[in-house]
Input
Amino acid sequence: MIHMKNVSKIYSNGTEALKNVSIDIEPGEFVFIVGASGAGKSTFLKLLIHEETATFGKIKVNGYNLTKIKKHDVPYLRRTMGIVFQDFRLIEKMNVYDNIAFAMRAIGAPEKLVKKRVKYVIAVVGLQGKEKRRPSELSGGEQQRVSLARALVNNPEMIIADEPTGNIDPEMSFEIMQRLADINKNGTTVIIVTHELDLVRSFGGRVIKIEGGAVTEDKVIPSSIETNTDKTDSVNDLENEEKSGNDEEVSE
Amino acid sequence: MKFNSSGYLVKEGLKNIWNNRMMSLASVIVLVSCLIITGAAILVSVNVNSLISNIGEDNQIKVFLDYEMSDIDAIKLGAVIKKIDNVEECVYYPKDEAIKEYKERLDNLYESLQGEKNPLGNAYKVRLKDLSDYKNTIEEIEAIEGVSSVSDRGEIARTLTKLNYFVSIVGFWVVLILGVVTLFIISNTIKMTMYSRRFEISIMKSVGATNTFIRIPFIIEAMAIGLISGAIASTVLITAYNPIKDTAGQVIALISTSAIPLSSIWVNIVSGFCGAGILIGALGGYISITKYLRKEGGDIIGW
Output
């Protein structure tokens, strides 16, 4: 699914955003990417969708070798993944239905299939009856659900969610995470970039921590919802890290 | 791109025109102006050519033979003239026929100027292939033994050739400059559309839309603007053609007979204008969107 070996990314201004990163993510995994702002998370995502290319190292994503990928194959790579953005990225002039359908129409899907799939994903994210609403008529959580539906509609192998709960209230955040977890249970790989360690602790999964462009931790933590146990050492570690991350942000 | 997407892409392209209606309207106005000026230059050029060719048809120079020349020598001389490269046609014009042209003006005298008393000489009516080589050809004919004189219409030939050359050169530059201006205008319109839709483009890129798929609605929009402009410009020119022709005909009588009738060119005007509009639109749109996608369109905003 994702194979990164000794990947480094140095931008033209000399910034070394990623340093010798090696990660393997298998199909069906539920992965959190955590780290402070500027740690290299965004660069990691940009490399996955081939918006940026690695300066060194090898990357393979969903069967595409990104070191050698041809320009005309990039759209097909992106069709294997659905992206959920922190700020939803919904088109205001389109209603819920059209925002979701847009992702299918943009890749030339026939209208008959669009109708069928959009109806299905609207049900998956629980937005039945709100198809005609404009994004501004929805709550933050609902908007993120539209964004999630749009990411799902092309039936991707992998969902990449960039701070999916960053702009919504805690209750809605939990719901969005729950939906991502449900999607993962159906076999879709889910990669979530987040700051919210409470949610990481609640849902559990593989947690990859990026610091200063390097992977400093890569571990699996259990879900506290399922196990309903006290915080594990790992979670405590994450909490400490969150505090130190926040301190870093403040000092920046 | 799948065939079933074509309806969606066309719809999106046409929707863009309405969504950016002020910019589209401005483009159509500028494009119509450019096309009318370009079309007018072409029509003037075409009509001047027609005028030249009309005058050229009448422009039979007369080669007068020595008065005493026998009929056999006259035929031999005609053969020599025919061999000259620039001579298209050479028709014998006997003095008996020439005097008939003056019958009405001579009135009673006509009868007394028949046969031996005919003061006119035998001649050849010669039509030239290329008026620009008029002078050399006349000199060549005059050098033939037995040629008494040649009617000189060199000035008309030279003026018309100069006019034709001038119109062609001016027409070429007008078409070229306005073509570039038109291309610039239409590509700017598309640039504006793209700017207003850059957010949608970034989403399209993020979900895996190909560049071709992203390009098509913009190219369709530009082609539609070109088509609309072409249709308006051709309607304006067709409407104005006859009144302008009639007015010009009142000033220079020859124009009214030599001008190309509207019935034989209106199809060319419409198809030419609409075709040019579509072509310029397609080209302008393609240049614009390709440039955008290469420079900025690859980014998925915000990351």
User: Anything to note?
Assistant: The longest strand of chain B covers residues 87-93. The radius of gyration of chain B is 31 Å.
